[in-house]
Structures are given as structure tokens and as C-alpha cells.
Amino acid sequence: MIESECLVVRSYDFRETSLIVDLVSKELGSVRALVKGARNPEKNWTAHLLPLSHIKVSLYPGKNIYLLGNCEMVNFFSSIRGNLYRLCLATSLLEIAYLISPPPHQELFSFLFKTLYFLDRNNNSSLSLFPVYSWLKILHFSGFHPELKKCVVCRKEEDISLYSVKLGGILCEQCRERDQYAIRVDKQIIGVFPILSRIPLPEIKKIYISGRHKTRLRQIVYSHLLYRLEHKPPTLRFLEKMFLRDE
Ligand SMILES: [Zn+2]
Asked: What are the tens digits of pLDDT across the range 169-200?
């Protein structure tokens, strides 16, 4: 049996009273578990197992799926749940992490955990760079961080003017032929990349970048993310449709 701290990604009804839950676990990474009788009135863990909840659980390894034994609520993130944009952002990050998460998991879990607490407590802070920032962090902790300081081919720091999703980072003029689909990128965006990679989350509001460049930056990092994910999780699709419009 493993005691684990988890964030709930999604849950499905299973048979009469059970649930199947997908979790991002601090100890195990992406986990699917069966929760027998979760919808029984005497147990009633339905709220515990809603997407986003931070829970402590006991997990028993089964043949194809874990069995969830005990479940204790740590945080329900009620403030995030009261705002559709924040809810979409938070649940899409969990879905991305669930899809992409390879071991080790601790740093990724710790980032998600801090991010949800930040979203829950800072109701009024600007979130315009938040998606880009969190996508880059998840890519980083999963080992897919794009090269944002030097040309991804020749390692030169000068004459950077393109971004290659295929090669995974910025490209200089001399190496442009290595990817005919490389995207042309403005200098202001090239300058923001390394800052975004190193500052803590509460500091992102201090970064100044125009609306046009912000949109372009988001498009670039989003393309990189989708390339790595291979398919778009439902909440990310919804977030894109409803909220990720050009500024
Ligand atoms: Zn180069």
C-alpha cells in the first residue's frame, strides 16, 4: 500500500456506486484508480474526487489499476471553482501533466500544487502570461523544455530570429534551413523567453510585453506543447475555444 498526495484530474462513474479516477500523484506520477462504493451515501467521496481536489489517499496496486482505499480532502480550491477561466486553466494544466508526466514526479507535482494555491488565493492578479508560463514549466519538469537561450542547432546566442517547434527551440539566421517551417520571432519575444524560464510565478505580472507579442508568444509555446502532447485534452480544447483569443 502507498500513501500518496494527489490532485484529481477527472473522475468517471463506474457501475452502480463506484468511480474511476485519474490522479496526478506526488509519489507515482499519473495514476488511474478504482474507488469502490465512492458514491454510496455513507462513504460519499464524490466531492473529494471532483477534478482539481487536493487529496491524501491510500493506493493498493491491482492487476491493471490501483484501488483507492482511504481518501482525505486537503483542499477543494473553492475560489478557483468560482471562476470559469481559472477553473479551465487549472484543470487543463492537470490534464496536460497527466498526459505528459514521466518520472520523476515530485517537482512537477510541487509546481502544480503551488500553482493551484496561487490561482486560488490571488483572485485579482493578471493572468495574461500565466498559460505560457505554466506550459513552459510543465514541459521543463517533463524533460521537454525548449531551448530558449541559444540556437538549438549551433548553440550561438547572436542573430536569433526564429523558433523551431520540430527542433525544440530558438534558431539563428544561419541555421534557418534546418527547419523550413520555423516561425519568425520578434526580438522582444526572444528577450522574454529566458526571463519566463527563471522567475517565480508571482513575478510574472512584472514582465512587460505588448498584447500583440503576448499573443505571438502564447502561439509559439502552445505549438510546442501540442507537438509534445500529440493530442489535445478536452479542457485545453475548451480553454482555447473560450479564452485563448488574440489580444
Ligand atoms: Zn544556429
From this structure: 999 999 999 999 999 999 999 999 889 988 99
Domain 2-75, second-level architecture: Beta Barrel (2.40)
Q: Which CATH superfamily is domain 78-242 in?
A: Recombination protein O, C-terminal domain (1.20.1440.120)
- Residue list, CB under 5 A from ion ligand 1: 151, 153-154, 156, 172, 175
Contact 166, 145 (CB under 8 A): no
58-109: pLDDT as tens digits: 999 988 899 999 999 999 999 999 999 999 999 999 999 999 876 767 889 9
Cα 117 to ligand 1 centroid, rounded to whole Å: 40
Question: How remote is the CA of residue 140 from the centroid of ligand 1, in Å?
Answer: 22
